[in-house]
């Protein structure tokens, strides 16, 4: 979706390293979500935000932190990466009709 | 609590034949329901959504879904499959919780289309 960008597209980390994934939207939506996608598991909600300066935990928040300092951006941080965090990460703002707009994803491998 | 079950992990059809992807949900409230499609190595795209208006919902690319409250189902159908329909499909149920909207995804159904 052209209105949602995710940076980086790919990343390989060693166990214990840290990194930040950036999600940026140009659609001015209040809600934003971070998901991880693993084979056979669908998408699982990590954290979400209902507006600038607010964040909340989703289904699988352990090992992740988030920040929403600006309405357009939603950052997902891994302080100490573990192999179990190898996954594809998707960000999705949503509009008032509950439709979500997914970014292209970040493929993360932790060795 | 809410949950969503996609009854088939894989569905295989021949091109030109009908498609049925099954989804059952559980929710304490009148839910909003969605189907998203994901083509290989892509993000997800909305196919269609139900938000308490008409029970038969039409989406993009000839897909439609029917909300059946008595059966707690929201199955996705298409009369005639096309090769380009081969993808992963996700059923999503969402509900309001404590002032926040929380979506829950099914595990996905992989649609395989044979020539």
Entry keywords:
heterodimer; A: 111 residues; mainly beta; six-stranded mixed β-sheet; four-stranded antiparallel β-sheet; 10 strands; B: 115 residues
Task: Summarize the SSE layout with pairings.
The complex is a heterodimer of chains A (111) and B (115).
Chain A: E1 4-7, E2 10-13, E3 19-25, E4 31-37, E5 43-51, E6 54-57, E7 65-67, E8 73-78, E9 87-94, E10 106-110
Parallel strand pairs in A: 2-10
Antiparallel strand pairs in A: 1-3, 3-8, 4-5, 4-9, 5-6, 7-8, 9-10
Chain B: E1 3-6, E2 10-14, E3 19-21, E4 23-26, E5 32-38, E6 44-50, E7 56-58, E8 64-68, E9 73-78, E10 87-97, E11 100-105, E12 109-114
Parallel strand pairs in B: 2-12
Antiparallel strand pairs in B: 1-4, 3-9, 5-6, 5-10, 7-8, 8-9, 10-11, 10-12
Provide a descriptive summary of the structure in words.
The complex is a heterodimer of chains A (111) and B (115). Helix content of chain A is 0%, strand content 51%. Chain A is mostly beta strands and 111 residues long. In chain A, strand 7 and strand 8 form a beta hairpin. The N and C termini of chain A lie far apart (30 Å). Chain B is mainly beta and 115 residues long. Chain B contains no helices and 12 strands. Chain B has strands at 3-6, 10-14, 19-21, 23-26, 32-38, 44-50, 56-58, 64-68, 73-78, 87-97, 100-105, 109-114. In chain B, a hairpin with a 5-residue loop joins strand 5 (32-38) and strand 6 (44-50). The chains are: A mainly beta (111), B mainly beta (115).
